[in-house]
Specification:
Elements lengths: L12 H31 L6 H30 L20 H36 L5 H20 L8 E3 L6 E3 L6 H33 L11 H23 L6 H11 L2 H11 L3 H22 L1
Antiparallel strand pairs: 1-2
């Protein structure tokens, strides 16, 4: 991480500011859209079904990812807060993570747990949709609740392991966020990376791909499916895949050959996933429309009440 009063290695002042602005836009977009999804569930009784509970879990996880991103955006922009009278004489107020080592560990744990919950919740939604469309049987509340509980407990378990010594959290190349650290070339961190990636990325990706592929084969005779069967798997692969690939390269060959600017890109892509998920799962499934219809019903009721008066 950069020393106080100096820029991170490989970055200019404008680049630090640009990353902060991108993170801020991603955070606000993800928080706004996923909060709208959560609000829809809270205010629309027709959405309180076991299947929609899985989507709610995904929205909460993505909100956690966006909150983590907002912290990183704040840190990046604090780097560029200046004092002094002239721009040329205006040094940045902060050149380091502003919340200390303990804050870094907490930030890394929260962000990693939310990211794992988001990935696994996407797989849970895929399985839930396969169960609904292909078995023609209703998903039970007990099954959905147990699945959501398992997703969050599993995510918290894997996120806690670096705090206990298997793997580690560290500063990202820009020094404004904390996340899962690159493998240090030892058996400890490398084994954690590969085992964690298998259970929390490859396995959920396989479940998502298989579920939607079986849905397509099953429903092809009756017409196109009512849900998008390609975007969820692509979002997992293209959103989190570059981040996983970066850590894999770091485990096999180190990060010396990867430019610092390039190391930032996978994180920026991954933090866009909450926005994509909100649009796909909420807008594509008609969840936000339920909120709009309920709002219209409230307005109609209020107008009718005024007329009666």
């Amino acid at each position: 991480m950069a020393e106080a009063g100096s820029l991170p290695t490989g970055f200019g002042e404008l680049e630090v500011l640009a990353v902060g602005v991108v993170l801020l836009v991603e955070a606000l977009a993800g928080l706004s859209l996923n909060s709208l999804t959560v609000l829809s569930f809270c205010t629309s009784p027709e959405l309180r079904t076991p299947s929609h509970l899985l989507v709610l879990s995904l929205a909460l996880a993505d909100s956690g990812v966006s909150l983590n991103t907002l912290t990183g955006a704040t840190s990046s922009l604090l780097r560029c807060g200046c004092r002094g009278q002239g721009r040329s004489l205006c040094p940045c107020l902060r050149r380091r993570w502003p919340y200390g080592s303990g804050g870094c560990q907490a930030h890394g744990f929260q962000g990693f747990a939310a990211a794992l919950a988001s990935i696994c919740s996407s797989a849970a939604v895929a399985w839930g949709r396969y169960h609904h469309y292909c078995t023609r049987s209703r998903l039970a509340w007990s099954t959905a609740g147990s699945l959501v509980l398992f997703v969050w407990l599993s995510s918290a378990f894997w996120a806690a392991l670096p705090l206990l010594g298997w793997g580690h959290y560290d500063y990202e190349p820009l020094g404004t966020c904390c996340s899962l650290g690159y493998p240090r070339g030892d058996r400890n961190s490398t084994s954690f990376l590969f085992i964690m990636a298998f259970f929390n990325f490859l396995l959920p990706l396989f479940i998502t791909l298989t579920s939607y592929r079986l849905m397509e084969q099953k429903l092809r005779r009756t017409g196109p499916p009512q849900v998008n069967t390609t975007l969820p798997a692509r979002t997992l692969l293209l959103g989190w895949g570059p981040y996983a690939l970066l850590h894999l390269c770091a485990a096999l060959a180190g990060t010396a050959l990867i430019p610092p600017r390039l190391q930032v890109v996978p994180a920026l892509i991954a933090k866009m996933v909450p926005t994509v998920n909100a649009v796909n799962y909420a807008l594509g499934s008609g969840i936000w429309q339920c909120l709009s219809l309920q709002r219209s019903g409230w307005d109609s009721a209020q107008r009718a009440a005024r007329v009666l008066r």
